[in-house]
Design goal:
Blueprint: H1 5-10, E1 26-27, E2 42-49, E3 67-75, E4 78-85, H2 89-97, E5 130-134, E6 137-141, E7 148-151, E8 156-160, E9 176-177, E10 184-189, E11 196-201, E12 207-213
Antiparallel strand pairs: 1-4, 2-3, 3-4, 5-6, 6-7, 7-8, 9-10, 10-11, 11-12
Length: 225
């Protein structure tokens, strides 16, 4: 994405610390100030919005950015950095197209025609909000979408999962894991009934039940005066 002076001046979410990173990199044997304990082994991970293509820079919102993972892997007193885009279906479609296909939340009503190919999802799973780690599986999450499985340590994208067809609702970006039972609790909301659904994934990673939650839509309560 070419970032213009106008965008830097007018859109907070494309400037400074929020400016998009276009390259995927690996940095091995990083310089360490001090000492990393040799028994510290694992990954320090961050996922956040990082747009590869933008429909309208002035209207861009940080929620629109493609998911990018930054990771530092610790092993034997050393540190290895790598960053990767989450290779969601929407991201790969736009990369193949060479430009935007999905306009973003602030531009949904813009009449400019989109060029979504036949069979493409209407909405983009951005996988850009948070992680969940459950049953030795890392999920990149986006509030209205299915969770996306990421393989460690390479950060390769395995793809979105619907838990063998059992997940019938969006999967919150902020599920909770009960460390006593090993179960992961999640929910999703929609504009049609059921407006909220609650699901449980057991310690083995199997979705074991879903419960619709009946709430009253605020739109159904509106009266014209």
């Amino acid at each position: 994405m070419a970032q213009s002076d106008t965008a830097r001046a007018t859109n907070f979410f494309l400037d400074g610390n929020f400016a998009p990173v276009s390259e995927e990199r690996d940095a091995q044997d990083m310089v360490v100030n001090g000492e990393i304990p040799k028994d510290l082994t694992g990954h320090f991970l961050r996922v956040g919005p990082n747009p590869a293509h933008i429909f309208n820079e002035a209207a861009y919102h940080t929620f629109d950015g493609d998911g990018m993972i930054h990771a530092i892997t610790f092993n034997e007193g050393g540190a290895h950095y790598r960053n990767r885009f989450v290779q969601t279906e929407g991201f790969k479609l736009e990369q193949a197209h060479g430009g935007w296909l999905y306009k973003g939340m602030n531009s949904m009503m813009d009449p400019t025609p989109s060029e979504l190919p036949s069979g493409a999802p209407k909405n983009k799973n951005l996988a850009n909000t948070a992680f969940a780690y459950h049953n030795k599986t890392l999920y990149a999450l986006h509030e209205p979408s299915q969770p996306t499985i990421i393989d460690l340590p390479e950060l390769t994208t395995q793809g979105a999962t619907n838990f063998d067809g059992k997940l019938k609702h969006p999967f919150t970006a902020h599920p909770k894991v009960d460390h006593s039972s090993g179960e992961m609790m999640t929910f999703g909301y929609a504009f049609q009934t059921p407006y909220v659904s609650y699901s449980v994934i057991n310690a083995d990673g199997e979705l074991i039940h879903t419960t619709p939650i009946t709430i009253q839509s605020r739109y159904s309560c509106m009266t014209l005066r």
